[in-house]
Amino acid sequence: MLESVAKVGSLTATPWIYVVVALSVLLDVFLPVLPSGVLVVTAATAAAAGTGAATGQVPHGVPDILALTLCAATASVLGDLVAYRVARRGGERLDRAIARSRRLSTAQERLGAALTRGGGALVVLARFAPAGRSVVSFGAGATHRRVREFLPWSALAGLSWAAYSVALGYYATRWLGAAWLATGVSVGALFAAGAGAAYLMRRTPRIPEAS
């Protein structure tokens, strides 16, 4: 963990931090094992430490917190749209793969019903759950949901997730001071949010079809 913080911290004085964050967030819809959330939190922690957040001093040469948030949110939405398009064009092969998985079939059914009734808050909730973003994005495409039903909720989900992750790193550093401690607490809070979102998704009752 400390080694990762040091590596990210070395990037905070260069524009490459935005590229690394964007690529990680963009690609983790296909590879959920990528620690994009941890990277965003760590970048925010390193940025806050570099700006002297504890003293309120903001010198040049460190990432801008707002820019970091918008970078992560934009990459999240773009990744969702790519996954949506891939699934929409996946054809029968993807449909059969989903049909073989009870978990994916159930998630797909709930997502379709939620989007139809304007209950896209499920998309926002799934963004925090482990692999939830992948299930939702591919599910929306596979069921041929209209992009205007999916995109606004994807944008809200990406912005909510990015703002939460960046705020964790920034304010933890401001309150706790030590970057390593702030990073540990922030990552723990991020995982806790993911576990809570996954639990709520499992507990969400199936939405009945309208008669």
Automatic annotation (TrEMBL):
InterPro entries recorded: DedA-like, VTT_dom
Q: Which residues cross the membrane?
A: 12-31, 38-59, 65-87, 150-172, 178-201
Q: Which Pfam families match?
A: VTT_dom
Tell me the keywords, alphabetical order: Cell membrane, Membrane, Transmembrane, Transmembrane helix
- Tell me where in this chain the VTT domain is found: 53-170
The UniProt entry lists membrane topology as: Multi-pass membrane protein
- Major site of localization recorded for this protein: membrane
Q: What compartments host this protein?
A: Cell membrane
Name the PANTHER family for this protein: INNER MEMBRANE PROTEIN DEDA-RELATED (PTHR30353), TRANSMEMBRANE PROTEIN (PTHR30353:SF0)
Tell me its family: Belongs to the DedA family.
What is the name attached to this protein's record? DedA family protein
Organism listed in the record: Streptomyces anandii
